[in-house]
Design brief:
The chain has one domain: Nuclear Transport Factor 2, Chain: A. It has a six-stranded mixed sheet with strand order 2-1-6-5-4-3. By secondary structure, the protein is an alpha+beta fold. The chain has helices spanning 2-42, 46-51, 69-77, and strands at residues 53-60, 66-67, 81-96, 100-113, 117-132, 135-145.
Amino acid sequence: MKIITSLILLAFLLVPLAGAAEDSALIQEIKAVESLRIQYQTTNDLDKLADMLCDTLVYTHSSGHTMTKAQFLESISSGDMKYITIKPESMNIDIYNGVTAVLTGTTRLHVKSKQAGEHDAHLRYILVYVKEGAQWKVAAWQSTNVKP
């Protein structure tokens, strides 16, 4: 009886560890996906970038200007916006039910836009990924300027 009780207790203790390991694997998966998004966005690989965006994407720039998926992709393809470099500084990832990931952090961008010219931006952001089938896709991005 002692052995059975010990095994049951051990099983209860290991359940949270299994969940933590699963979250850790998902966090690594999200980091890899986010690296690809940055690569595609800075190299203007719009076909691959488009595949990573939800059709219902809401992309809100630090200026407050909001774009749909089509508008965001058009702004890059037309040359209105060119993401030269994107360098994340900090990134926190929270996973919800294995199908939603909320990333928060800071990043530095070097961009060129027809409206503002070439400039640097230091942003605080929130980025939401959702899992559609087997693929993680960006559902929302919102950023604000970090004050010096």
